[in-house]
Amino acid sequence: MINIILCGGSGTRLWPLSRTMLPKQFVRLFNNRSLFQDTVLRNQPVCSHSMIVSNKEQYFLAVDQLSQIHSHNAQFLLEPVGRNTAPAIALACMALDADDLVLVTTSDHLVKNQAAYEAAVLEAKALAEQGNLVTFGIKPTYPEVGFGYIEANGHEVLSFKEKPDVKTAQSYIDQGNYYWNSGMFCFKAGVFLDELKHYAPEMHQACLNAMPKDGFKLEIRIELDTMNAIPEDSIDYAVMEKSRKVKVVPCDMGWSDLGSFDALFDEVKQPGLENAVLSRLDDSPEPICIDSSNNLIVARERQIALVDVEDLLVIDTSDAILISKKGSSQKVKAVVAQIKKQAPELADIHRLAFRPWGTYEVLQDSEQYKVKRIVVKPGSKLSLQKHFHRNEHWIVVSGTATVTVDQDVFLVRPNESTYIQMGQLHRLENQGKIDLVMIEVQVGEYTGEDDIVRVDDIYGR
User: Fold this and answer.
1) Which residue, of 222, 256, 290, is where some domain finishes?
2) 305 Cβ partners below 8 Å, 6+ apart?
3) pLDDT tens for residues 398-410?
4) Are residues 188 and 305 in the same domain?
5) Pick from 88, 102, 131, 303: CA 20 to 30 A from residue 271's CA?
6) Do 281 and 223 fall within a single domain?
7) pLDDT on residue 367
8) Of 236, 256, 276, which one is at a domain's C-terminal end?
9) How far apart are CA 7 and CA 77, in angstroms?
10) Which family would the database say this protein is a member of (predicted)?
11) ∠ CA(161), CA(166), CA(169), 5° rounding?
12) Among the residues of 73-113, which ranges form H helices?
């Protein structure tokens, strides 16, 4: 069985932890691992390998995090833009054999009961081998209004329900045969594609048109124009709610979609403690809480102190702080909408940003200058590029930099520096065996990340 992992979500409801360039599934939340890494590890006992469907901007994050957990048996399908879950799953299935069994999972959900999870997957696998499209129904623990529900009788699906109000959700729980729609599926690739062709023929054909004609490789890249031609729809609307081959496996596996900070509070809160604290760094200072309870505190390097407050969400990152009443965290999406208008970089990227060649961290960002700490991994190099609005000073802290400036190539060693003039073609490379660490000082009228003209880039950006 093959695990199709959907990685395209942006996780805006967990801003400022989650951002466009480091979305929720790649943020390290528990045990110094990301939800994406946990997904891969969770499915290794039941699947032979992974097919990861990712936005091309997140591809290098996924590759890097796979290497950290020593998982190398994965194939990638890279989308230039997202078109929702039905096209993503269809494209992945078109790269497989019709008889291949697939387990479709998101990359950003939490499962705490591995034994119950594996038992549910084996049950679904047996139903899928009989030619069914199998979904997983999670036993509800409270009247959630943010999920769809599945009405079931055993494995038989009686109906799909839209997101209800609280009263209706409570009636579902009282009735006892309604389950949260988890967004996980199991079926044969060919069975799903046949049903898609029957119920959404235009989408099926557009996906066929988008698939590369030169064979399927470990990295399948879809072109932008053919991706944009695919109708946008979810697997539920396109197929599952219409097909007569749908079955459900009811299960209770300690599942959470971690779709809000309220959901994160439920997972972080420990019995006997008045507040739920998630430390983002090993040396994060312990929050000081005086006569304060039932709060979620996500701490980084700053000291956080609460006095006489209850039911708050306090989320601290290096460049933004979110404070909200518990129960209101669904409104964070509205905050992100405002951030995109006022300070778009805060919605897109953290001060510590991950790149295919390493990382950079913004240490200071002021008018007409910016200071960064840059780390380049051994054997990696940045694009050959130039800037129109800034000059750059590079100071090497450790490692050795191979620097290209126009036609000149030279080495810069620790405690040495070099200067890149505005408009000069330049490249930074680490040919050594240890990380290259350097400080970059940008000086100019504009220091935004979009002032980059790439002339040559090994990463295809």
Assistant:
1) 256
2) 287, 288, 289, 290
3) 999 999 999 999 9
4) no
5) 303
6) no
7) 87
8) 256
9) 10
10) Belongs to the mannose-6-phosphate isomerase type 2 family.
11) 40
12) 85-94
Report if residue 344 sits inside a domain.
no
In a domain, 345, yes or no: no
pLDDT at 148 over 90: yes
Residue 434 lies in a domain: yes
Q: Interhelix angle for 35-43 vs 59-68, to 10°?
A: 60
- Say whether 308 sits in a helix, a strand or coil: coil
Residues 149 and 240 in one domain: yes
188 vs 129: CA distance, rounded Å: 7
Non-local (6+) Cβ contacts of 219 within 8 A are 59, 75, 76, 78
Instruction: Give the mean pLDDT of 6-19.
Output: 88
Q: For residues 313 and 200, give the distance between their C-alpha atoms in angstroms, rounded to a whole number.
A: 42
Same domain, 157 and 12: yes
Q: Which pLDDT belongs to residue 366?
A: 87
pLDDT at residue number 284: 79
What's the domain range around 271? 261-331
131 and 50 fall within a common domain: yes
Is residue 85 within 8 A of residue 6, CB to CB? The reply is yes
pLDDT for the residue numbered 175: 95
Q: Give the count of domains, the chain.
A: 3
- The verdict on 222 and 324 lying in the same domain is no
Return the number of other C-beta atoms located less than 10 Å from residue 260's C-beta.
Answer: 22
Strand runs labelled E in 162-282: 178-188, 219-221, 246-251, 255-256, 276-279
Residue 288: pLDDT band (50, 70, 90) is very high
User: Which tokens belong to 35?
Assistant: 């939800």
CATH number at residue 50: 3.90.550.10
Whose CA is closest to 39, among 55, 51, 56?
51
Q: 443-446 long-range contacts, Cβ below 8 Å, gap at least 24?
A: 443/368, 443/369, 443/390, 443/391, 443/392, 443/393, 444/368, 444/369, 444/387, 444/389, 444/390, 444/391, 445/368, 445/389, 445/390, 446/389, 446/390
